[in-house]
């Protein structure tokens, strides 16, 4: 039911847990989200606090799930772009085309000291660098043409060297020669996700993101940001219909079937220090989602549960079931890759199309 224009409703959820290091708990949450047919799950990561590596955790979740997209936060500051793209490509391979990555930056001096390479920088510069990392990654993923692997045991040839390409990417803080060490991912380019709430990140999202997340407390606020993102994407030469804009809400579904608190249900979420919070039941959440999407102000929602297991269960069995019953959300996955869930085409390889030499 997902249209090529993205008018199908897209739903995603966070599987973040405090102080959880065992893989089984993340597998359980991802399977719960998958039972509701959600497009993808996210797992946050930051250098600012202890926790497991999100990309490694979701690589473990991949073989224990079948269809749901897997989107770890990947900090582009202080990390090697070449290693980042190889790790994200590997996640796409082990998940058979279900990988995304949520780009983020690291702005504090304390985090910079963990690495000892350079001092903290301004957010504007770091988001520009994040965009460059996204561009370098895409070029490195294209550095292997899709049919570059030969695997001819008789001759001992593994790869056709004429179908590997140097990218020679020069960024403001790094340069990469290439080619990648990982063959082109199943999706061509794993899905790029950016939280576009803050101004510095919004430009990077408009230029590079496949999915932009917006923390908005009202339908009108989300719609204004979506319109701005689509207009900016067009200025960058993009088709704005290739950008999905999801409203990000923290959800607390602990209050029965309906029971949305004043200001949370029909009146929309309540703004808090941690972002817009919806507190109520799965029925009223379904009403809110249907209303905002019906207004054409968002392409979907990214929901962060307050109590992950309880809230994801109520989301899948309550909210999603109601949306499906009303014909607003699909009852099965339209394909096997995250791009297919989102109604996004697989990008052509720039080197195969242009015939560029290495």
Describe the overall structure:
There is one protein chain. Residues 1-6 have low confidence and may be disordered. The protein has 358 residues and is of the alpha/beta class. Helix 1 (23-35) packs parallel to helix 9 (308-325), helix 3 packs across helix 5 (123-142) and helix 5 runs parallel beside helix 6. The longest helix is centred in the middle third of the chain and has 20 residues, at 123-142. The chain has eleven helices and 14 strands. The strands form three sheets. The chain has an eight-stranded parallel beta barrel with strand order 1-2-3-4-9-10-11-14, surrounded by eight helices. Strands 5-6 form a two-stranded antiparallel ribbon. A two-stranded antiparallel sheet has the order 7-8. The protein has helices at 23-35, 54-61, 81-94, 109-115, 123-142, 199-208, 219-235, 282-294, 308-325, 338-342, 350-354, and strands at 10-14, 40-43, 69-75, 100-104, 149-152, 157-159, 169-170, 175-176, 191-195, 211-215, 244-252, 270-272, 275-279, 300-305. The protein is globular.
